[in-house]
Amino acid sequence: MEGNPALEKNTVEFVTVAAEYCVFIGNSGDKDRIELIDILSKLLPLLYLKASMMPEMEPEGLFLEENVTETEYDTVRSDLRAVMSDADDYLEVFVEDMKYSDTPVRKSVSEDLADIYQALKNFIASYRSGLEEVMTEAVAVCSEGFRTYWGQTLANTLRAVHCIKYSPADEHDTYFSSPDRYL
Question: pTM score, two decimals?
Answer without folding.
Answer: 0.87
